[in-house]
Design a protein that fits this description.
Strand content of chain A: 5-15%
Strand content of chain B: 5-15%
Shape of chain B: elongated
Distance between the termini of chain B: 25 Å
Helix content of chain A: 55-70%
Oligomer: heterodimer
Mean pLDDT of chain B: 83
Distance between the termini of chain A: 32 Å
Mean pLDDT of chain A: 79
Number of helices of chain A: 4
Number of strands of chain B: 22
Largest sheet of chain B: 8 strands, mixed
Structural class of chain A: alpha+beta
Radius of gyration of chain A: 16 Å
Number of strands of chain A: 3
Strand order of the largest sheet of chain A: 1-3-2
């Protein structure tokens, strides 16, 4: 059970961390977020519509991000998501946890290599 | 360009979002798809291929729909939700679950309504029947320490009598010598013409010994109890008023004490008012002293009630009284060899007749509730399976399993609470209807109002139902295989073995219970039909009866009484619309006057005390004709039979002939009271009139001419002739003549009130009330059970088929013929139905034995009823199986396989 729990937390946590990081500096719309994840990971990570949007809604729901319809000249309106104050706190905490986790992994795997 | 919005909307349909959030989500997702599509086009991917790829990304639409639903739903609830669960307390978590539960209940209206309706049905039946049972058998009587109150009587099996009544000689001795009772009181019902400023009204009263208040643990509210002197033969004429009569007639005036009231034209001094709680003897509005003569050892005419000493058991008291009773034999009470005291708890004496029927009904509604619960459990399993993917997603999205189970249980609790509330409301209404239909044989001290015990009972059954049907899906949810559930394919293959077994077991139980209930109902309805077919021995149609009571003070001599009835009946017969009129001391279903007879040349002649009790009826000429009784031989009474110098004649009924002579014509034979010098000659033989009710045994009976009898009877028998019943047969509806009849009664003597005006058919209906009620209720329960079972089987088989769509598609694609598929699904379903029927049959054979006392001669194993019910249920099962089986056979293999 414990193993599965770690796994689940990780998967869930990592996806949240990715999205929160991408909207940290500026507001972005869903398609852009999806594209950026794919592009910046060199295609290793990709989100399908069916899982990306539920995730966005969940984060919005939690009050970590906030969506807003924005109309730009010559374009149809899109929903842009930006990080909220609470989201910023959460992002900080998640980054911290993630760093610790990576470090832990690194220590273990690093020792193996040494 | 493809219509992205349409594509998204289709895939979101399952989420059932509110329109506002749906349009938001659709717009956002459509924009995403459009962006993706344009991107593909920019990469030179052709339109059709581009569209295909974009839509492919949208697949896993269940995930999308569920994800969107969960997310969006919460959004609308801001700010109370969205706070991470661990920061909320249990209460907040529960409130949250409750909100979600209510929304889920609303979002599946058909399913919710079905569950609520099924549960409400079960609860309503139980609530109503339990209230009746509670009122009759559980609720304490309205007296202090009522469990110590014991009914006292004498029994004489050799006289063919269960309850004989008690003689004054016996009760004086019991009361004096016993060591097991705190107090003992004796009473008899009576009624009086109460004259109040010119108009006479009829009031029911009781003659009681002065210990009655002690036994009931009560004190007079105003005034005092009877004195020892007043309760002796020849004591002063005094009376205690009931609270109700005091309020009604004297408007609660406390100065009524000391005033004189005319009862049957005699002055009685009011010495006090009884408290409101004095509701025993039943319907007595006035108490007068019994003032019994201790030397009267021949009249078995009073009932008794005693209060046991604390710590004394009824068995000890029984032994005590039996010892006293038998000790009187050597002192000349030879008759006490035949009679013995009989004791039972007060409640059993007055309500014992209802015991079997109410137990059986309680069992029946319990079974309906069980069937309903089985059905709901099955529904929940089906729904739980359909929801396993949603549950898996929620688990994947971070909901703990505990939270998921709590959520499901809350949802079921909400359904159970609504169903329970609706059921209780319907049950309370049903109870009102049933109580309003109850006959007046149920004592007034029984009340059926809702009480704490009832509330506890209702909460318990709804709670149990919630737990019962909440358990299955909740357990399933915990065992959900997330990965499997998320992979669509896994969920559509055959359902897991455990779940299938559970569903099969539920189906078998449901069929079995339904069969048991239906067979019981069939037997009871058949018994009722048989009772209705019984020849009552008279024709109740167009007959109206009313009572008269002519007071001894103004009609002192028997000639005066005879003249009164002659005059009255002659005038009534002259009324247009009246074809025949007569009077009797005891019409069918009303009145009892017993005596012992012996028949010349018949069985038991000259055998002291061996003969059974005979029902004696006094009747005027015209009574047999007015009641429409059947004269089998000889003649009925004529005016000459009442003349003082005429010979003593009687008519007897068939049972009398059977009991005393076995067979042959009784006309011309003679009967007498044991050892008496007067012989009565039999002049007519009448068909048995069902005097005690259509479903009751008839006693031997003797009819005497009223005029002759009133002139010769002793003081005690005269009481039985005091209140007479006038019977009118009309040419059409006799109700139309009531006004004219009342006028004539008033003209003949304004001091004689006419009361209890009733149609004979109504009295017959009322006498069958209990049997009609339970037969009818059983029938209703059976119909409900059958409908529930049909719906349950249909639902479960449909579900099984829907789970196998893919498998069936493969088999069809591989060449199976639709007929084979149909046959196979039908066979599987009917195998279960048959197992259920088999189990139900075994159960019914055991259970219907408990019904035996209610079956009126119908065998508890009546093969026809068993066959009809079994075949009927098999047909219902077949139909419920056929629809889904046909659906399976018409599965399109291409579509079934293409489903993913």
């Amino acid at each position: 059970m414990a193993r599965i729990a770690v796994d689940r937390e990780l998967k869930k946590g990592s996806a949240e961390l990715l999205v929160l990081s991408l909207v940290e500096r500026r507001a972005r719309h869903g398609y852009e977020i999806g594209k950026l994840i794919e592009a910046r990971s060199g295609g290793a990570l990709s989100f399908q519509v069916a899982s990306l949007y539920p995730l966005l809604y969940r984060l919005e729901n939690r009050g970590w991000i906030e969506g807003q319809w924005v109309e730009k000249a010559g374009q149809r309106r899109r929903r842009y998501y930006r990080l909220t104050k609470e989201g910023r706190k959460a992002l900080g905490a998640q980054r911290q946890r993630w760093r610790q986790f990576v470090e832990a992994i690194h220590q273990i795997t690093g020792m193996e290599h040494a | 360009m493809p219509d992205w919005k349409k594509a998204v909307r289709e895939r979101l349909a399952a989420a059932q979002l509110d329109p506002l959030s749906e349009s938001d989500v659709v717009e956002e997702l459509a924009q995403h798809l459009e962006d993706r599509y344009q991107e593909l086009r920019a990469n030179d991917i052709l339109d059709a291929e581009g569209e295909r790829r974009v839509l492919a990304e949208l697949e896993n639409h269940d995930l999308l729909a569920n994800g969107a639903r969960l997310a969006r739903r919460r959004m609308t609830l801001r700010p109370s939700v969205g706070i991470p669960p661990r920061r909320r307390g249990y209460m907040a978590g529960f409130l949250h679950d409750l909100k979600i539960a209510f929304r889920n209940v609303r979002s599946k209206p058909a399913f919710s309504v079905m569950v609520i309706a099924i549960l409400a049905l079960g609860v309503a039946g139980n609530a109503a029947i339990f209230s009746i049972f509670n009122g009759l058998f559980l609720r304490p009587l309205p007296f202090a320490e009522s469990e110590r109150l014991i009914d006292l009587d004498e029994t004489a099996p050799r006289w063919n009598l269960k309850n004989v009544g008690i003689t004054a000689t016996d009760f004086y001795e019991w009361r004096k010598s016993n060591s097991t009772f705190d107090s003992m009181a004796f009473f008899r019902g009576s009624s009086y013409n109460l004259s109040d400023r010119g108009t006479a009204v009829r009031v029911n009263g009781a003659q009681v010994t002065r210990e009655m208040l002690d036994v009931l643990g009560l004190q007079p509210m105003i005034g005092r109890n009877f004195t020892v002197e007043e309760d002796k033969p020849g004591g002063a004429k005094v009376a205690l008023l009931s609270y109700g009569l005091w309020e009604r007639t004297f408007r609660g005036d406390p100065k009524v004490v000391g005033s004189v009231l005319k009862l049957d034209e005699e002055g009685y001094t009011m010495i006090g008012v009884l408290p409101r709680e004095a509701v025993f003897p039943d319907r007595a509005e006035l108490w007068t002293p019994l003032a019994a003569d201790p030397n009267n050892g021949n009249s078995y005419y009073v009932n008794g009630v005693g209060r046991l000493k604390a710590g004394v058991s009824i068995e000890q008291a029984r032994a005590d009284l039996l010892r006293i009773h038998k000790a009187m034999i050597p002192d000349g009470r030879k008759v006490n060899e035949i009679t013995s005291p009989v004791l039972m708890p007060l409640r059993d004496r007055y309500l014992g007749d209802f015991k079997t029927a109410s137990h059986v009904l309680l069992a029946a509604v319990g079974m309906v509730l069980l069937i309903a619960s089985v059905n709901i459990a099955a529904l929940m399993m089906v729904r739980g399976a359909a929801r396993s993917r949603e549950i898996a997603i929620r688990t994947a999205m971070g909901a703990s399993r505990g939270r998921v189970v709590a959520q499901l249980l809350t949802e079921n609790a909400v359904l159970a609470a609504i169903g329970g509330a609706v059921g209780i409301a319907v049950g309370a209404a049903g109870l009102q209807v049933m109580v309003s239909q109850m006959p007046d044989t149920i004592p007034q001290w029984v009340s059926f109002s809702l009480d704490g015990r009832f509330a506890i009972f209702c909460v318990a059954i709804t709670g149990a139902a919630a737990l019962l049907f909440g358990l299955a899906p909740a357990l399933q949810a915990v065992n959900v295989d997330i990965r499997g559930a998320l992979q669509d394919a896994a969920a559509r293959t055959t359902s897991s073995r455990g779940r299938r077994l559970t569903m099969n077991a539920l189906m078998v139980c449901e069929i079995g219970l339904t069969l048991m209930l239906s067979i019981s109902a069939g037997l009871l309805v058949e018994a009722f039909r048989k009772v209705l077919q019984v020849d009552p021995g008279f024709r109740p149609e167009n007959v109206i009866t009313f009572r008269l009571n002519i007071p001894d003070t103004t009609f002192e001599k028997s000639e005066q009484k005879i003249a009164y009835y002659d005059n009255l009946l002659t005038r009534l017969r002259a009324l247009p619309g009246v074809t025949e009129a007569g009077a009797t001391s005891a019409p069918p279903l009303g009145g009892q006057w017993g005596g012992i007879f012996e028949a010349e040349g018949g069985r038991g002649f000259n055998a002291q005390g061996e003969n059974p009790e005979v029902l004696r009826i006094a009747a005027t000429p015209g009574y047999v004709e007015a009641m429409g009784m059947t004269l089998l031989e000889g003649r009925t009474f004529e005016q000459r039979d009442g003349k003082p110098d005429s010979p003593q004649v009687v008519m007897v009924n068939e049972t009398f002939v059977k009991t005393f002579w076995g067979q042959g014509s009784p006309v011309g034979k003679r009967i007498r009271q044991p050892g008496g010098k007067d012989w009565y000659e039999v002049i007519g033989l009448l068909r048995d009139e069902k005097h005690y009710g259509l479903d009751q045994e008839m006693k031997p009976s003797v009819f005497h001419p009223y005029a002759k009898t009133i002139a010769t009877v002793d003081r005690n028998d005269a009481r039985s002739l005091k209140g007479m019943c006038v019977v009118l047969r009309g040419s059409s509806d006799p109700k139309i003549v009531v006004g004219a009849v009342r006028e004539i009664v008033q003209q003949v003597d304004p001091d004689v009130p006419m009361y209890q005006v009733e149609m004979m058919t109504e009295q017959m209906d009322r006498s069958l009330w209990a049997r009609r009620a339970y037969s009818w209720l059983f029938g209703v329960f059976a119909v409900i059970a059958i409908s529930l079972a049909a719906a349950g089987v249909y639902g479960m088989v449909s579900y099984a088929v829907s789970q196998r769509t893919q498998e069936i598609g493969i088999r069809l694609a591989l060449g199976a013929r639709p007929g084979q598929v149909l046959g196979q699904v039908l066979l599987g379903g009917m195998a279960l139905v048959s197992v259920g029927v088999g189990g139900g049959l075994a159960g019914a054979l055991l259970a219907t034995r408990l019904l035996r006392t209610l079956l009126f001669g119908v065998s508890a194993y009546d093969p026809l009823i068993y066959a009809v019910v079994v075949v009927g249920l098999l047909v219902v099962g077949l139909l419920a199986n056929f629809v889904p089986a046909r659906r399976a056979a018409t599965v399109d293999p291409v579509r079934a396989l293409h489903f993913e």
